[in-house]
Design a protein that fits this description.
This is Branched-chain amino acid transport system substrate-binding protein. The chain has eleven helices and 15 strands. By secondary structure, the protein is an alpha/beta fold. The strands form four sheets. The chain has a five-stranded parallel sheet with strand order 3-2-4-5-6, sandwiched between helices. The longest helix has 20 residues, at about 45-60.
Length: about 375
């Protein structure tokens, strides 16, 4: 199996305008555009994504670039706004004339970009989770994270294995939460699991006690699954502990980072969620084909930034390396050839999983790429 030849290197900073270029701007450069939510409510996603892109592009240039050209990163901070994302993607395509685009920290910002890249026929790799991004398949759109449906499947499989067939569901009302809610209901029906309580919360809500009290008082509830991202799941976790709900609590991959444990504190103890192996890199068996890639990324990111890695930065790593691999196999920056090369990616070992793409699958991962993790003594433990 093939792994990337690149490693982490150096940081760059955002300019006051919200756009930053790599230092090298030769007459012939390969331009990669990016739009991320580096600030705002989704900054816990976009900040590590941007840091990862900057680090690796610097290293790629130090090693000679791609196709004999230096790589120029043109990026914008959409602050989590779909409207800003749309504006910046138009700029990347029209004014900046990038060769390909990586971006969309959230489902909302990603979906704002989809019609634009499809019309302009520019290869686009998203870092957001909802299944709608690549299902149905869109010719020019790819993604690196597992889908919300796969996350629901992984969680419900564990619940069923533990004998839990009646559950409470709580989810955010944003794009990610709504999609996760929809697919959890579908997967639960397929698996014979009954959703006996179903509650939601808004992105600005600061207390979910009322919703959790309803779930707690519902007869027959055996476990609770929260589908959301940002601070909402941490609030749910704290309220859950305050109400002394003595049932297993599960979260989605939308909070798969140390930030969740930091925000939720001791209340997170025992919470389970699906995630890529990055958060338990050091405990992976030596025979795991992802271990070299995962441990290298973790060590170098943390050394460069003096902060913990998150699975969200890994989505950016995989997006960039899949892009570079496709460019090299295409032997050209011709957008149609690069798109075709992306679609033909096979057995590519990334941090998130081993990617096998096709004309029918523009993500290339399955449920097995998820590992089930549990918070234990303030850190992540591999359950399986």
């Amino acid at each position: 199996m093939k792994t990337t030849k690149y490693t982490l290197a150096l940081t760059l900073t955002l300019a006051a305008t919200g756009v930053s270029l790599t230092p090298v701007q030769a007459a012939e450069t390969l331009r990669i555009g990016a739009f991320v939510s580096a600030t705002g409510p989704a900054s816990f996603l976009g900040d590590p994504e941007l840091k990862t892109l900057e680090l690796y592009i610097k290293e790629i240039n130090a090693q000679g670039g791609v196709l004999g050209q230096q790589v120029e990163l043109v990026h914008y901070d959409d602050g989590g706004s779909a409207g800003k994302a749309r504006t910046y993607v138009n700029r990347l395509i029209g004014a900046d004339k990038v060769d390909m685009i990586i971006g969309g920290s959230t489902t909302g910002t990603t979906m704002a970009a989809v019609p634009l890249v499809e019309q302009a026929q520019v290869p686009f790799i998203s870092m957001a989770g909802a299944i709608v991004i690549t299902d149905p398949v869109k010719k020019w759109v790819f993604k690196t994270p597992q889908t919300d449906r796969m996350a629901a499947t992984k969680v419900l499989q564990d619940m069923k294995a533990r004998g839990m067939t009646k559950i409470g569901l709580i989810s955010g009302t944003g794009g990610f939460g709504r999609s996760g809610h929809k697919h959890t209901l579908e997967v639960a029906k397929e698996m014979g699991i009954e959703i006996v309580a179903d509650e939601t919360y808004g992105p600005q809500d600061t207390d979910m006690t009322a919703q959790l009290t309803k779930i707690k008082s519902t007869p027959g509830v055996q476990a609770v699954f929260n589908f959301g991202f940002g601070q909402g799941p941490a609030i749910v976790t704290k309220n859950y502990a305050q109400l002394a709900i003595d049932l297993p609590l599960y979260q989605s991959h939308g909070v798969a980072s140390d930030k969740y444990i930091e925000l939720a504190g001791d209340a997170a103890e025992g919470v389970r969620l699906p995630a890529s192996p990055l958060l338990v890199a050091d405990t992976l068996p030596e025979t795991d084909p992802q271990k070299p890639v995962v441990t290298a990324y973790k060590a170098k990111f943390e050394a460069a930034y003096n902060m913990p890695v998150s699975t969200f930065g890994a989505y950016a790593y995989d997006a960039l390396m899949l892009a570079v691999d496709a460019l090299e196999r295409a032997g050209s920056t011709d957008k149609a050839k690069v798109r075709d090369a992306l679609e033909q990616t096979q057995n590519y070992v990334g941090v998130t999983g081993v990617y096998n793409l096709s004309a029918q699958d523009h993500m290339g991962l399955d449920v097995s790429s998820f590992r089930l993790l549990e918070v234990s003594q303030g850190t992540w433990k591999l359950v399986e």
